[in-house]
Write a structure and sequence with these properties.
By secondary structure, the chain is an alpha/beta fold. It has one domain: NAD(P)-binding Rossmann-like Domain (Rossmann fold, 3-Layer(aba) Sandwich), CATH 3.40.50. The structure holds NADP nicotinamide-adenine-dinucleotide phosphate.
């Protein structure tokens, strides 16, 4: 199938300072006609990104997804950067894993929920009028959302636990579990929320509008995702797992998965698809039965719409 014609060359990527996001930025910028807008919370972490292209093709704007004020300010900056143009795609990719005690943001939400899910969801609401017709909006998902995925279980994940939007947003998922398990549950739940939201947005969308896709990049050991783990765990994540993982199902590399991601963003893959859950091999993959619950999708969408209106 032919890719959809793109009326714009501007792609927007979050979390492009490291891991799969940095690889994705390199792939998108490999096309000399493309331009990239990224949000970075730590300008000092953006050196590798800056080396990919000059300011004529690459705009690095401040964004802390764990702050609604920063998210709103970023949306304004993107709007003025586009100067009336439209985004060809949006990769809602940034994410973090916190395995310590529950951390609430200044907005009063649990940090994993806000940085991984809510910040992106609010950004989507704000940027909807600035997305080109048919533009793919891709949320980075994860097999950890699904309790039946063996590799995720091996690492201690037991699937997302959606306990209603208000409680989930506070990180109050299972207070009887040990703190580390609660942190892993919050991560898996942020990814379950991302998939629930993709399905809800696809159902809400008008024909010809943006398309919504959840992308599971597979397990990619060696990225910065383990930065909040203990020293030993971080060492194993960067030095042992990249070798061991080759024998495990569902594992990939940031480079391999970024190529698939770029194919979705540029319309080479799934040129008209929406409401999809897709893996790093560019196959449509089943997501968990929980993610298919339309009552949860609708509740979460109402929650996001309310938060977006408040700010
Ligand atoms: N690695 C895996 O095995 C795996 C598997 C499934 C899904 N994923 C998902 O893939 C995505 C990328 O992760 P990765 O593995 O590439 O990890 P990574 O190397 O740690 O990259 C994460 C990116 O997110 C950014 N980020 C984190 N918190 C942010 C915030 N509050 N505001 C703005 N940016 C923020 C980081 O920016 P800084 O440089 O400022 O920290 C970094 O650029 C995440 O959504 C992750 O959940 C990863």
């Amino acid at each position: 199938m032919e890719p959809m014609p793109m009326s714009s060359s501007h792609h927007l990527v979050t979390g492009a300072t490291s891991g799969i996001g940095l690889e994705l930025a390199a792939r998108l910028l490999a096309d000399p006609a493309s331009r990239l807008v990224v949000g970075a919370r730590r300008p000092e972490a953006a050196a590798a990104l800056r080396a990919l292209a000059g300011p004529d093709r690459l705009a690095i704007l401040p964004l802390d997804l764990a702050s609604l004020a920063s998210t709103a300010a970023f949306a304004e900056l993107v709007r003025s950067h586009l100067a009336g143009g439209a985004l060809a795609s949006f990769a809602a990719n940034a994410g973090l894993q916190i395995t310590g005690p529950c951390r609430l943001t200044a907005d009063g939400y649990e940090e994993t929920f806000q940085a991984n899910f809510l910040g992106h969801a609010v950004l989507i609401e704000r940027l909807l009028p600035h997305l080109a017709p048919g533009a793919p909006v891709v949320l980075t998902a994860s097999g950890t959302h699904d309790p039946t995925i063996r590799t995720a279980r091996m690492f201690g994940f037991r699937g997302g636990l959606f306990v209603g939007a208000d409680r989930t947003a506070k990180g109050d998922l299972d207070s009887a579990a040990p703190p580390k398990q609660q942190g892993m549950d919050r991560y898996a739940t942020s990814k379950l929320c991302a998939i629930l939201h993709v399905y809800a947005l696809a159902r809400r969308a008008a024909a010809g509008g943006p398309r919504f896709i959840a992308f599971d990049p597979g397990l990619m050991p060696g990225t910065g995702l383990a930065r909040e783990r203990s020293g030993l765990e971080r060492w194993a994540w960067s030095n042992v797992l990249p070798v061991l993982a080759r024998a495990m199902p569902g594992t990939s590399t940031a480079r391999y998965s970024a190529t698939a991601y770029a194919d979705i963003l540029t319309g080479r893959a799934f040129p008209r698809g929406t409401g999809l859950h897709v893996d790093y091999k560019l196959a449509e993959a089943p997501s968990s039965p929980d993610s298919r619950r339309e009552d949860w999708q609708d509740e979460l969408l109402r929650f996001v719409e309310r938060v977006a209106l408040e700010r």
